[in-house]
Amino acid sequence: MERSTEVPWLAIVNPASGRADAGRSWRSIERALQAVGVQCDMIRTQGPGHAGDLAARAIAEGRRRLLAVGGDGSVNEVLQGIMNAGPDVAAKVTLAVAPNGTGNDWARSLGIGRDPRDIAAAVAAGRTMLHDVGAIDFAAPGAPRHWFINVAGAGFDALVTERVPRPVPSAFTYLGIALRELRSYRAPEFRITADDTTLEGRFLLAFVANARYCGNRMHVAPTARMDDGLLDVVAVDALSLPQALPKLGKLYAGRLLGDPAIHHLRAARVRIETRPDAAVQADGQLPGRTPAEFSLEPRALRVITGR
Q: Does pTM surpass 0.90?
């Protein structure tokens, strides 16, 4: 790990993220940063997509230290602003997260908790890693490339993401909607090409993971590493609700990969086709539908870690 010492930071705060007390949470984070001597300016988002615009504007103005205050979706928006500036500029940016959403799954992989003192300590310590960044290219004409840093997926997880109300009412919302929707969900036919390996069948979903967690603590890709240049593909056979329920314990414990209903591949490039087409989610955002190609920009972004 290397240490970053440059200041000031710019905090991009999503006041609607995760919980009703998001504003009070930011004030606690701000006080904790001040207590450890971290200088930080702040700007609030005004609606969906605005965090990406603010990040892009900040980078154009010369900012190179960005703190995303919110959940995984807020981080994803900031990521668009960074990566769309181009690889040479993105390589000079450091991204930190102050997890203030519902799931905060990327922060969990980085070892950064919700306690404002932990967040401030991580930023002040300045431990960084060079993090892979995922890219999704859609076949639809004119569809822009969409970036992700945590976990993307196609099929049932994206459908559940579509159903989740915003702001998310509670930490159990995703699981509750998943169990409800699984009763009537019809799994599509998938064709997954991961480098030179092809996997075909009727799957509930396919995760394309750069990190380990999604859906609020679901440990979907325990072997994923954020700096190895590879994506972990985890495809789940079509399951009924009674078949899926016994696997939940394995899912949260990170033991899903040994289950016979699970298919696991690792690859630098992945293509997912489905019949019929299916929604694609990326860090909890919904950028498009299949067919889609997933790839990585290895070690493309410096990020603050808690370890």
A: yes
